[in-house]
What does this fold into?
Amino acid sequence: MSHSPHIVVIGGGFAGIECVKALRGANARITLIDRQNHHLFQPLLYQVATAALSATSIAAPIREVFAKRKDVSVLMDEVRSIHPEMRAVNLASGRRIEADYIVLAAGLRSVYFGNDEWETHAPSLKSISDAIEIRRKFVSAFEAAELLDDDADRSRQLTFVVIGAGPTGVEMAGAFAELSRKTLRDEYRRFDTSDARVILIEGQDRVLPTYSPGSSEQAKRDLEELGVEVMLNTLVEDMDDMAVTLSDGNRVATSTIVWAAGVAGESIGSTLNSERTKGGKIVVSDDLSVPDHPNIFVAGDIAHVIDPKSNAPVPGVAPAAIQMGRFVGRAIKRELNATRNNRPSPDRSAFVYRDKGSLATIGRNRAVAELAGRRFSGYPAFLLWAIVHIYFLIGYRNRIMTMLQWFWQYVHYDRSARIIPTKSYEFRDKE
Amino acid sequence: MSHSPHIVVIGGGFAGIECVKALRGANARITLIDRQNHHLFQPLLYQVATAALSATSIAAPIREVFAKRKDVSVLMDEVRSIHPEMRAVNLASGRRIEADYIVLAAGLRSVYFGNDEWETHAPSLKSISDAIEIRRKFVSAFEAAELLDDDADRSRQLTFVVIGAGPTGVEMAGAFAELSRKTLRDEYRRFDTSDARVILIEGQDRVLPTYSPGSSEQAKRDLEELGVEVMLNTLVEDMDDMAVTLSDGNRVATSTIVWAAGVAGESIGSTLNSERTKGGKIVVSDDLSVPDHPNIFVAGDIAHVIDPKSNAPVPGVAPAAIQMGRFVGRAIKRELNATRNNRPSPDRSAFVYRDKGSLATIGRNRAVAELAGRRFSGYPAFLLWAIVHIYFLIGYRNRIMTMLQWFWQYVHYDRSARIIPTKSYEFRDKE
It folds into this structure.
């Protein structure tokens, strides 16, 4: 071959990282592009938002992950468009990059179902910045409550609304309740922190709708024992700075709203001009390539592919993204090897999702797990959840730091990451 | 006594925290007011700015420190004015608080010597937010350099200017140089990270001007061995988005400027209407009270008091602040006890500063120390520096986390805290 083949991977999430790892030794040049400079361990992001973990424990600079891989070049840039016919991408920095293979692993973004203005009131949880903003709002509400004399004002400050009872919403609501009732218990002098209300709102008739009904029941019981008010079959009609209006007509005065209700494929997917689902996911062939574009693959949450075993779409969870990324990386490597040896490309196999089960934690010693058709909860599920999450965290340093912080918290009920960073200049020039 | 006496402490830095600790068992109501919700271990803040430590490792929620002290009430609020005659303070939230004793421990702020507009170009290092902003600028400059084709543009991105060669400036410049030459070495593909320039600018004729000339020499040698360009007898004439103009006429194109040159007493001190130094510090009596206002004390960096042993002002360092805070707390406690037992107040003693020595670190195994008249450097000074800083860090959790991160870094040259947080919404609505 006259030149070493070039592979562009868009997105440094689970799928993108695993794809590049699987391409080790493929004798290719690989360019990994991400808007952020770090891989983020999304499943633990809610723990940053709830002050259990420091942000740096669950993020790894992408460059550091591939520092030793001289075949990998990392660009912190944003892909503005993909040109499938030309196999090229245009970047926000103005550069245009051509490739032999493109792997789109851009993931999902939060959507507000046509109410984009809600975003200013109800941050969602997608980035480190989002998590720190939610933490700031939550901790600041308690600080504000300590300064207030009016009961109604104080109870508004101490009302926290989480919208959407999927795993993120459930984990967030449980952690808010634990923070209020346990961690902060001794720290305020003018009110009882257990008077704080945590309200979890879900449009469907159960929490964790993608889990089995038994797990949903267990999770709801756990949440309620922690003090969370669970409102099912309830939609949000409107929201503003002061309150959320619900479909049952109630108006809930609140200081802090978190949006965990809707996601859709990142908008870059639209530039492929191929079939997409209503949720903006890209409908791919069974080998995860884009129909009519065999050298363009889609992996991770933004890919829509039907699992032949369950006849349902492969779910948008980390293990599926990891499997897809690895699958695509291996497929490309096989083809490059064949070409290099002047053999015909092997037939591509179909992606098969291996469901490893589902895990969600609600609080200390409270979790639900579904593994190999078995359902369990309580301490065993909680412990399994912790072990699995440590195992999948990237980087030994992050694993050790996270274990240490969890251990400390488990023993002391302590969540020391609850600092509110305020810029110096906000205090300036008062003289 | 008809009511339990009320003590207001302004500032949750070293002096404020130590004062409240010393007041344990004084049978008083104590209100501790700070604009931030956390105590910050300032001596290690530059390590957050240079990605060695996570922000949460060097900050402790003030409430958590005093959770068990039911006599202490913590308010996250800003004092707008102090009324010495009425012994009252007015808060930004609108409240007015009266007290039997007021302890002002508000610390210092950065000043730009009449060039306030420089602050937008050259952040100083006073808060967690400042540190994260400096870290963002530094890491982003390397990311930008990887995207640039023009050599001049790239070398501007890779030029870092630190203004002021006191301990903070020296430690910062050394850490920037180590980051560029060691930590980031393998991670960029389009340039050699050791081409990055780190320039340290100092108006006086040596670095660390408050140290002995021998230590200054040693620190300069260490800095230069690490690759820092040290410019002495040099002032900054002007700066903008693109460059710094120096007093020797040179214009240095740079992406990142850090201000470590000037500090002054927090402006709240002016509302006391008592004598202040040019630097805005409050001139206090030898018992640290404000002349003519025996029940108003000043402690920490904002206090100006002459040390009778050296005949020089007590320096603005953490051990001095700790000693002053403790001294004031004990003095107040003694007086309250006397009053409670219907004894006359004991005569107040004069504050005596016990100089524990000076320590500054320049890089791995490089530090200077001055202890009990002896000067040493290299590995012993480095080790001592690490031990002392761990010892003074508040909270066991912070100590363990910091030790662990240091150990990891020492073994691996790794600084994993170099994530750039970007908000999700900055990437929105490109569709």
